[in-house]
C-alpha cells in the first residue's frame, strides 16, 4: 500500500489545566471532556480503514481517560448525568473489546511461538489462523457499526450530554487549587489503602482494582501538571504511570489466559492445535504467576516507601 493511501495517527497535544484559569473548576473540566470526546472522532477513519491497530487503541484510551476524569470530578456535577454519561461511554467502548483483545494476541504472536517447541508450531499456527479470521469478522462488524446511524446517535447523545453537563451549586466555597487537592487526595488515599492490603495471597481481581485506581490518579495528576507545585500529594504522575503500565501488562496476561481457556472449551481436546494450546497455556500460567510475585514485591515496596513520606 502506498504511503499516501494510509492515514497518519492524529497528533494529540496533551491538555493540562490552565494555570491562570479564573473559571470555576467544573467549567474547565467540562471544556476538557468536550475537547477529548471531540478528538475521538479523529480516530474513527483509521479504525474503519484498519491500517494500524493503534487507531483503535488510542480511541479506547481517550474514552477511558474521559471516564476517569469524569469520575474523579463527579462531585462537581449532577450525579445522575455523571452516571448516565459513564454508562454511555462504557457501552460505546464495549463493542470494540473483542477486536482489541484479538489485536493484542496477534501482536504477540512471535512471543507465543517462542514459548513452545518448534514441533508444536503447526498446531499453534492453526490457532492464530482462527484468530485472524475472528479478528476480520469482528473488524467488519465494528466497521459497519461505526458507519451506522445507531453509532452516530449514541455519539451525538454523549456529545450533547457533555455540553450540557450541569455543575452542582457548591462551587464557590473554595478555590480551584483547594478543590483539586481535595479530589486528588481522596483518590490517592484509596490507592494507598489498596496497596497496603497487597500481599503474596492477593487475588488477580484485587490487582485489577488497583490498576483502575492508579489509572484514574495518573490521569488526574497529568491533567494538573501545570499546578503540580501547589499540590499536597507526594505521589507523582510518573510513578502512577509506571505502576499502571506494569499492572496493565499483568492484566493483559490474565485476559489472554482467560481467552485461551475459553477457546479450548469450544474445541476438541485432542489434535495438534489442542496439544499446542495446552502447552502454551501452561507456559503462560507459569509466567503469569512469576510476574505476579515480582509485581507484588514492587507494590509492597512502593507502599512501604510512600507510608514513610
Brief summary of the model shown:
InterPro entries: CHAD_dom (IPR007899), CHAD_dom_sf (IPR038186). With 309 residues, the protein is an all-alpha fold.
Attribute tags:
CHAD domain, 11 helices, 73% helix, 0% strand, globular, CHAD_dom_sf, CHAD domain protein, CHAD_dom
Describe the structure.
- Helix content is 73%, strand content 0%.
- It has 11 helices and no strands.
- The chain has 2 domains: 21-116 and 131-173, CHAD domain (Alpha solenoid); 174-309, Alpha solenoid (CHAD domain), CATH 1.40.20.
- It is globular.
- The protein has helices spanning 25-49, 54-72, 79-94, 97-107, 109-115, 121-146, 149-163, 176-195, 204-223, 237-265, 272-308.
- By secondary structure, it is an all-alpha fold.
- Helix 2 (54-72) runs antiparallel to helix 3 (79-94) and helix 6 crosses helix 11 (272-308).
- The mean pLDDT is 91.
- It starts with 24 loop residues before the first helix and ends with a helix.
- Low-confidence spans: none
Q: What is CATH's topology name of the largest domain? A: CHAD domain
What composes the largest sheet? Answer: none
Shape: globular
Number of strands: 0
What is the beta-strand fraction?
under 5%
Q: Quickly give the structural class.
A: mainly alpha
Pfam family, one: CHAD
Protein name: CHAD domain protein
Domain CHAD: 22-301
Organism: Photobacterium leiognathi lrivu.4.1
Amino acid at each position: 500500500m502506498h504511503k499516501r493511501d494510509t492515514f497518519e495517527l492524529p497528533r494529540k497535544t496533551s491538555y493540562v489545566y490552565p494555570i491562570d484559569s479564573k473559571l470555576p473548576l467544573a467549567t474547565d473540566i467540562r471544556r476538557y471532556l468536550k475537547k477529548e470526546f471531540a478528538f475521538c472522532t479523529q480516530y474513527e477513519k483509521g479504525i474503519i480503514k484498519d491500517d494500524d491497530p493503534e487507531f483503535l487503541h488510542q480511541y479506547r484510551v481517550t474514552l477511558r481517560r474521559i471516564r476517569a476524569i469524569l469520575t474523579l470530578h463527579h462531585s462537581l456535577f449532577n450525579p445522575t448525568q455523571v452516571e448516565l454519561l459513564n454508562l454511555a461511554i462504557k457501552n460505546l467502548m464495549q463493542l470494540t473489546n473483542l477486536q482489541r483483545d484479538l489485536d493484542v494476541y496477534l501482536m504477540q504472536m512471535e512471543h507465543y511461538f517462542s514459548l513452545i517447541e518448534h514441533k508444536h508450531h503447526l498446531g499453534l499456527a492453526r490457532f492464530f489462523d482462527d484468530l485472524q479470521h475472528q479478528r476480520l469478522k469482528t473488524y467488519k462488524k465494528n466497521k459497519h457499526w461505526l458507519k451506522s446511524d445507531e453509532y452516530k446517535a449514541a455519539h451525538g447523545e454523549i456529545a450533547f450530554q457533555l455540553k450540557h453537563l450541569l455543575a452542582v451549586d457548591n462551587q464557590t466555597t473554595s478555590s480551584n487549587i483547594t478543590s483539586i487537592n481535595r479530589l486528588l487526595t481522596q483518590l490517592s488515599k484509596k490507592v494507598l489503602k489498596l496497596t497496603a492490603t497487597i500481599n503474596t495471597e492477593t487475588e488477580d481481581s484485587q490487582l485489577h482494582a488497583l490498576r483502575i485506581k492508579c489509572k484514574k490518579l495518573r490521569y488526574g495528576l497529568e491533567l494538573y501538571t501545570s499546578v503540580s507545585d501547589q499540590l499536597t500529594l507526594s505521589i507523582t504522575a510518573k510513578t502512577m504511570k509506571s505502576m499502571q503500565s506494569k499492572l496493565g501488562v499483568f492484566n493483559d496476561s490474565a485476559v489472554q489466559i482467560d481467552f485461551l481457556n475459553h477457546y479450548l472449551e469450544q474445541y476438541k481436546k485432542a489434535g495438534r492445535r489442542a496439544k499446542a494450546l495446552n502447552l502454551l497455556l501452561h507456559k503462560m500460567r507459569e509466567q503469569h504467576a512469576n510476574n505476579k510475585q515480582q509485581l507484588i514485591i514492587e507494590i509492597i515496596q512502593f507502599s512501604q516507601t510512600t507510608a514513610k513520606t
